[in-house]
Specification:
A hairpin with a 2-residue loop joins strand 1 and strand 2 (89-92). Helix 1 (8-19) runs parallel beside helix 4, helix 2 (25-40) packs antiparallel against helix 4 (58-72) and helix 6 crosses helix 7 (132-140). This protein starts with 7 loop residues before the first helix and ends with a strand. The chain is an alpha/beta fold and 292 residues long. The protein contains twelve helices and eleven strands. The protein has helices spanning 8-19, 25-40, 44-50, 58-72, 77-81, 102-114, 132-140, 153-165, 211-216, 219-222, 231-243, 259-269, and strands at 83-86, 89-92, 122-126, 145-150, 171-174, 191-196, 201-202, 223-224, 244-253, 272-278, 284-290. It folds into two domains: 8-73; 96-290, Rossmann fold. The structure holds S-adenosylmethionine (SAM). S-adenosylmethionine is lined by residues 98, 100, 104, 127-130, 132-133, 150-152, 155, 176-178, 197-199, 220-221.
Length: 292
Amino acid sequence: MFVQNNTGSELKRYVNDKLSSSYQRREIQILYKTMLCHRMQWEHADFLSNFTTAVFSESDLLFFKQCINRLLKKEPIQYILGETYFYNLSLKCHKEVLIPRPETEELVEWIIESTAFSTSLLIHDLCTGTGCIGLALKNENPNHEVFLSDISPYSIKLSIENKDFNHLNISVLTFDSLKDSPIDSFKENTFDIWVSNPPYIPMVEKEMVDTNVYEYEPHMALFVEDKDPICFYKSIADSGFCYLKPDGFLFFEINPNYAKDIIDYLQKKGYKNIELKQDISQKNRMLKAQKS
Ligand SMILES: C[S@@+](CC[C@H](N)C(=O)[O-])C[C@H]1O[C@@H](n2cnc3c(N)ncnc32)[C@H](O)[C@@H]1O
């Protein structure tokens, strides 16, 4: 056996010993708590009262050992456990679909603040990945009608699983955001919100991407070609202009290095009230614009 006994304090010692050369102390604490809460179905309070005194089964201990071995290879904990938390929702994760990020929760927060007085909205979340943005908006207001779309079959399957898992009544579509193909079920000038966090890292910036992100997360969710790094924003702004109502909102998560280029394009296209917002790390990360 790799631990001397089955107690929480012994497991904690093992996890610290194994991970201390690869992770910071604070990261290990978070990983340890995340693993235990997932496996034991504990809430925060259960963790606090049980984490040193709990006695684990052999099967629990083997599970933790397998997690540690994968963490040592720098695999993200969300892929190991197959789940993450996003804006009050528990979402399933899959290695072919991007893990939702805290910056994207900030985008959701901004949309909710900006539309606080609206009772029911028609929303399209393009390049949806796990479905996180659209699902969170629907969860906050069940009166919204929400469409999720993506080109990846893994994303389509996962966002359907996530909507079912969270009991949210939402439509999921396969849609190529780079092609100007109209969607049969959509009517022009009807949408209140067209929102997207599309791929936004040009290949020239790939050296700046963390190794674990580069090695484990799907490249089609991360990278765009260098020749036109804002191609998704242009295409989505174009289709948004057709499907949004007058005064309807476009919301984007963006690469801070291309904020000006995207704003210039939106102005040229005829969007008004364009607003740039920083994330918690003071980076220009979000854009809002209204159709004229
Ligand atoms: C940066 S990820 C964002 C996922 C999710 N919205 C989020 O915030 O976590 C970009 C997503 O765009 C999708 N994608 C890539 N190319 C696409 C295309 N041409 N049309 C539609 N979706 C595309 C990827 O499959 C991926 O799910």
